[in-house]
Each structure stands twice: as structure tokens, then as C-alpha cells.
Amino acid sequence: MADLEEGFTLTAVPLGSGPDGPLGVEQSDKTDQFLVTDSGRTVILYKVSDQKPLGSWSVKQGQIITCPAVCNFQTGEYIVVHDNKVLRIWNNEDVNLDKVFKATLSAEVYRIHSIQGTEPLVLFKEGAVRGLEALLAEPQQKIETVISDEEVIKWTKFFMVFRHPVLIFITEKHGNYFAYVQKFNSRILSKYTLLLGQEEKCVIQSFSTSVGQKFISLMSLSSDGCVYETLIPIHPSEPEKNQRLVQSQLLKSVVSGSAQSGAALSILDQDHIAVLGAPRPASKECLSVWNTKFQTLQTSKELPQGTSGQLWYYGENLFMLHGKFLTVIPYKCEVSSLAGALGKLKHSQDPGTHVTPHFVNWETSQGCELGSQNSEQSKRIKDSEKHIEVELRKFLATKRTPDFHTVIGDVVIGLLGRCKAEPSFYPRNCLIQLVQTHVLSYSLCPGLMEVALEKTDVQILQLCLQQLPDIPESVTCACLKVFLSIGDDTLQDADINMESVSDYMDPVQDGKMEEQTTFLQNGFNPEEDNCDSCAQKLKEKPQATADESTSCPLTPKRAALLNAILRSAYSETFLLPHLKDIPAQHSTLFLQYLYFLYLKCSENATMTLPGTHPPTLNQIMDWICLLLDANFTVVVMIPEAKRLLLSLYKFVKSQISICSELNKIEVSFRELQKLNQEKNNRELYSIEVLELF
């Protein structure tokens, strides 16, 4: 359970002239005192409990403060940077900043960090870091460049991990985000590429971190209104290598993705976060507290005068800009429990606090009130899935042990057992992560593809066909039936790996597949059942035939699924009986696609398809033979298949002719080879005439 108490205004006059509010709020060496840095020229020291300023300092006219002032906890002095390169240090007795200690640096400063237990650090805009003492000893020292060109620092945090200082900063370049982690006990700088996980690139509006025993939890609020989490290992296996980290969605639609004003989040404790922003496009901004463990909105407070999208958290106080005034809202968070998350704890509440027990509707991603007992049970199962996913990501981020594949197999078997016991339980994200470990086999978890077939989960089926060895031919054929029969509407929403078709499928076809498929499947008019007339038409209209043949009869997603079938291992003896059970219309459609792939291969001299891991020519030809062997007597009776069979007949005939010609040439090459072997018996110079018949 969480409570937002009545807030109060800390500043008595409008703060600053900048559009984005204050530069920062930093704690002083006294627990109840905070440094507030204006976006213009002023730093003010406030005592929160008394709601009054204790001191104020300004740079002179024409100068501008460029990063928030901080307190040096080792000396009790204050530090600020103005005009990007000029560093000032003063104490409470000083009045005029123009007369205090000054150091002009050789590079522009992004932020000064200071926390209890260590000296302040200076982070430069190019990514280099210096301790304050070393920097003051030689202010004009050369500052190296750490980040690449056009890479810009967006956010940074300084904290202690096991009594050792750690700095993390996030950069952005062309919509891609990177995390740098600097551990000062080992002087190692680790770089991570953040894979956002969304289909479309989104702008990250805010970051926040918390530290556990093995991981740094990096949470981000994206412009799509969702909260994502990335687990950064404290002790990476390869610290100096650029590693890739995938973000996972933690909360969905906590703020409006279309809101024009900024949004922010801050981690309050292990299970609670504060979010600042408009929950809906037309609504006013509000401050809300979410329980991340149970996916519930605990409480919220409207901010009718608007906010700048900035949020600071110290102790039990939240600082934010409300209108043009810095406001403090105290809060309380209790130990997370299901009763507390549902608002069912028996204790008094302040009448002015708006508490909203609120579940995320996992079906529509919209808010809904608590329903029947069955509805609550279903949601709890979903919460359990999220908890399992978080724990699984933590486990997969640890160093692998020799029995890793066995452990992964046991986890899959355990999850599948629960899937069968509880039909509503289906942790597909967890199963996808487990398959992507590349250590599973079909024999290790035979129930995985069985469950995926029952759920018609084509994404997992495609992944299994690509990753798992020893898949039985009966299961491969069952996947083929699903891929050929599933509706286009269902496929449109499925997350399919498209890399095998991306370079030879026309994206325009996606919207025209239905018309093309119908045209190709219908083929000839059923009334024109004379094979000779069909052949005659083919001769009369070769151009039309070529156009039809080079048009893919499938949508790109269905084609990508069938490519996974083509690349899978099989035994012809065991596969043929199962192929005979495929409906004739589906066999014809598959043959049309295979013939289309053959024509695509014929377009280049290497007889290969472009793209990443496409089917090979041998795989295409083998499957054409398999389908014809299994279904020829049925397919030959279907009018829609006549044109296709005639095209295949002409193709085979041409191949026989080519082979015959090659056999003739082979004899001549053999004779040439014999002549070449007799080369040693010739003189240094000779003229020979060879006649080839």
C-alpha cells in the first residue's frame, strides 16, 4: 500500500525562466536541506521541514549555470559549473559567487556527482570522468573522448555498490541507446547496447536505477507510455566487451504515449515506482505510485497546473515542478503484499488522498475495476507469469554452469507441467527466452512444441524449428499444416522472424496476397479440362505465365514460416506418410510457393536466394519431389493445379535437356584432361588444333 500526503510549495516565487524548470534538486550535508539550482543564474539552499530558504547565491549577469549545484560531503562545501567550463566552490559564509574559488576547465562538463562516502566526480560531455581532487590539481589537463561522434549523454547516476563507487550514464545516437558503467575500484568501463524490444523506435523520456545483489535495475519510461526494465550485471563475464541487453516491459500504458508534455519516473523501493505524467491524452498531469510486483496503481494525485516532467526523490519526499513552483509531496510505501496492492489492508486513510486499487487489464491494456473471483484469480496467474519472467531474466544473465542445459530443460518441463494443469497459464515470453538459449533439444522437452501447436503459437513453432534438433517428422508435418491453414488475420498480429524472406519478398504484396492467391489457386477454368488446350495457352501467352509464376502466392509472414519447414532436418521415409494427410489445396499452395522460390533462385548465376538463412536450391527441389510423391494422384485431379503441374513438367523437361547437353560436353572435357596430362611430353612450344564434336 502507498500513500501520497498533502504537498506544499517550497519556492515562494516562480522558479527560473527556462521552459524545462529547475536544473536539479540535490541533497546537502544536512538530511533536511536541499540545493535547488535555477535554470538561470541562482542556487538556493532550502530547509524542507521549515519550508524556507537558508541561503541564495547567483552568478553575475551574462553568465548561466549549466549543471546542478552539489554538496561535497567530505568538506561541506558547494560546487557548481557555469558556462560549461567554469567551476566554482563556496560555503555557507560566502555571499558573492564571483569572489569564491574558480577553476576554468579544458572541456565542457555534463554533470558533477557527489554522494556520501566518496569524493565528488566530474562527468564531461565527451564521456570522460575525473575525481574532483585530481581535476583541481590540474584544471587544464587534457580530457579524452570516450563516446563516439554524435553520441549524446541523456542521463547519469552515481551510487555505491558494496562500498565501491559506480557511475552509470546513458547515451543516445540516431535513436539507439547505450549504457556505460564505470566501476572505480577496478577502473573498468563497460559499454552495453540497450535493445528496446519495441517494434518501432521510441524516445526514452526518463530513467531511474536501483541496485540489487547481482544486478543494477535500470528502468525507463518510454514515449509509448510503458515502463521497461533492463538488468545490468554488477560483475559482467566480459566487462570490456560491448554487450547487448534486452529491455523487458514492466508496466504498460502508465502514461499517455501521445502527451506533449514530458513524463518522468523514479524508483521508490523494491516494489514501488513513482510516475509523473498524463495517464490519458485528454487528462491532466498527475503523480502516481505503481506496485511493479502486482502490476497495480496504488495512488495518484492530480497536478492541475501542469508539470515540466521532472521528478526527484529523496528519503520520503518527492520533488516536482507544479505550475512554476517547486512542490514537495511526502509519501509512504508499506511492505508489498497482495492485500496491500488490492487496497484491502485494514488501516485508516486520510480523506484527502485518492487511492485507486487498479489492475492492468492484460487483454485490452486498459484500466478495469476488480471483478469476480474468477477474474481476480486469472489476473493473479498473470502476475505470477510476470514474476517468473523477471526471475528467469535474472537467472539467464548469470554465468553459465556445465549443467546449464539440464537446468533449462527442467525449467521448461516445469512450466509446461503447469500449462497443462492450468489452461489459462501460458508464459510464452519465458518459453521464447528459454528456446533462445540454444541449449534445448526436442528430446529434452518434447511437450514444448505440443503445447505451442495446441495454442497455435506460430512464433514459438518457428523458433523451435530453427533452434531445436531431433524434431520428429510427425511434428514437422503438424507445424506445416498449421502454417498452411492459419488465417492471414491471425498471422498479421504474430511476431514472426522475417530475416529469411526480407530480401526477396515485395512488401507491397502484403496487401495484395488475397487477390493473387485466389488467382493462382483457381488457375484454369474448370470447364477447360483438356490438357492439350492448357499447353497451347501456355505457348500462346508465355509473358502472362511468367508474371504469374514470379508473383509469390503467400504473404511474407506465411512464407517465413514455411522457410523454417524447408530448412528443418528430416528423413524422407518417415516424412512421406505424414505428408499424405495434407489437404490437396494446401499441397498445391505449397507447391506454388516452392516453384516461386525456384524461379527466384534462377534469377542469379549462383542459383541462391538472397537474405539471411534462406532455403537452398537443394532443399527447394527435395520438397517439390516429396510433395509430388506424396500427393500427385490427388493434386493431378484438381483443376487449380493444372497450370502449376504443366509448369513443373516443362521445368523438368528443360532440366533433362540441359543434363543431356552437359553429358555430351563432359566427354569433351575428359579428352582435354587427357591431353593436359600428356603436357610433360611436349616441347617448350607447340601449336595444337582440337576438334570438338
TrEMBL record:
<dbReference type="InterPro" id="IPR036322">
    <property type="entry name" value="WD40_repeat_dom_sf"/>
</dbReference>
<dbReference type="InterPro" id="IPR042859">
    <property type="entry name" value="NOL11"/>
</dbReference>
<keyword id="KW-0010">Activator</keyword>
<feature type="domain" description="Nucleolar protein 11 N-terminal">
    <location>
        <begin position="1"/>
        <end position="332"/>
    </location>
</feature>
<keyword id="KW-0539">Nucleus</keyword>
<protein>
    <recommendedName>
        <fullName>Nucleolar protein 11</fullName>
    </recommendedName>
</protein>
<dbReference type="Pfam" id="PF08168">
    <property type="entry name" value="NOL11_N"/>
</dbReference>
<dbReference type="InterPro" id="IPR048897">
    <property type="entry name" value="Nol11_C"/>
</dbReference>
<dbReference type="GO" id="GO:0030490">
    <property type="term" value="P:maturation of SSU-rRNA"/>
</dbReference>
<keyword id="KW-0805">Transcription regulation</keyword>
<dbReference type="Pfam" id="PF20998">
    <property type="entry name" value="Nol11_C"/>
</dbReference>
<keyword id="KW-0804">Transcription</keyword>
<dbReference type="InterPro" id="IPR012584">
    <property type="entry name" value="NOL11_N"/>
</dbReference>
<dbReference type="GO" id="GO:0003723">
    <property type="term" value="F:RNA binding"/>
</dbReference>
<feature type="domain" description="Nucleolar protein 11 C-terminal">
    <location>
        <begin position="382"/>
        <end position="693"/>
    </location>
</feature>
<keyword id="KW-0698">rRNA processing</keyword>
<dbReference type="GO" id="GO:0005730">
    <property type="term" value="C:nucleolus"/>
</dbReference>
